Amino acid sequence: MTHKVVMIGGPNLGRLGSRQPEIYGDTTWGQLEVMCLGWASESDFDLEFVQSDMEGDIVGMIHRAGDTADGLVINAAAYTHTSVAIRDALAAVDIPVVELHLTNPDARESFRRTNLLADVVTAGIRGFGIEGYRLALFGMAALLADRPPRG
Ligand code: DQA
C-alpha cells in the first residue's frame, strides 16, 4: 500500500548546512532529502521532496499536494509567521498535514510565536532538529494507516 507524501520546505531551508548551523545544524538540504527518502521507504511512501523561497510557489505546491497526494509535511519556515496565503491553501486541502519546525519557534524571538498555520494543520512537530523529519514521516504513517492510497 503505497501512499504518496509531499514534503515542502519554505524559504531559506535550501541553505541548511551553512545557514546559522548553531541553530539549524550542519546537515544540508540535499543530505536531508536523502535521509527522508530512506525513512519514507520504511513506510512504503512515495516521497516528493520540494523546496521554494517563494510564497506563491509554495501555495501552488500545496494545491498540487491536495489534488494528488495522500499526505503533506510542511516546514513553511518564516512564512509560518506571516502568510495568510499559505494558511488559506492549507485550510483548503483535504489530506492530513503535519507542520514541522527544526527549532521550537515558541522558545525563540517573540515574533516567532505568531503561527498562522497551527490551527489549520492536523499535527505538529517542533524542536527535534533533523530528527523531526523522521518523526513527521512516522506520524504520517499513523495518520494514513486506515486510509487507502488515492491511487
Ligand atoms: C523554522 C523556524 C522559523 O521561525 C524560521 O523562520 C525558519 C525555520 C524551523 O524549522 O525551525 O526558517 O521553520
Give a structural overview.
The chain is α/β, with parallel strands linked by helices. The chain has a single domain, classed as Dehydroquinase, class II (Rossmann fold), CATH 3.40.50. The chain is built from five helices and five strands, in the order βααβαβαββα. The chain has helices spanning 21-24, 29-42, 55-68, 84-92, 131-144; strands spanning 3-9, 45-51, 71-75, 97-101, 123-126. α4 links the parallel β3 (71-75) and β4. α2 (29-42) runs parallel beside α5 (131-144) and α3 (55-68) packs parallel to α4 (84-92). It is globular, with a radius of gyration of 14 Å. Bound molecules: 1,3,4-trihydroxy-5-OXO-cyclohexanecarboxylic acid.
**pLDDT averaged residue by residue:** 98
> What bound compounds does this protein have?
1,3,4-trihydroxy-5-OXO-cyclohexanecarboxylic acid
Q: State the separation between the terminal residues, measured CA to CA.
A: 10 Å
Shape annotation: globular
Q: Write down the domain tally.
A: 1
Number of strands: 5
Specify the structural class. Answer: alpha/beta
> Helical amount among residues, as a percent range?
25-40%
Indicate the CATH topology.
Rossmann fold
Give the helix tally: 5
As a whole number of angstroms, the C-alpha radius of gyration is 14 Å
Can you identify the CATH class? Answer: Alpha Beta
Q: CATH homologous superfamily name?
A: Dehydroquinase, class II
Query: SSE order in H/E notation?
Result: EHHEHEHEEH
Strands in their spatial order, largest beta sheet: 2-1-3-4-5
- Into which percentage range does the β-strand content fall? 15-25%
Low-confidence spans: none
Mind summarizing the main beta sheet?
Answer: 5 strands, parallel
Shape-level CATH architecture: 3-Layer(aba) Sandwich
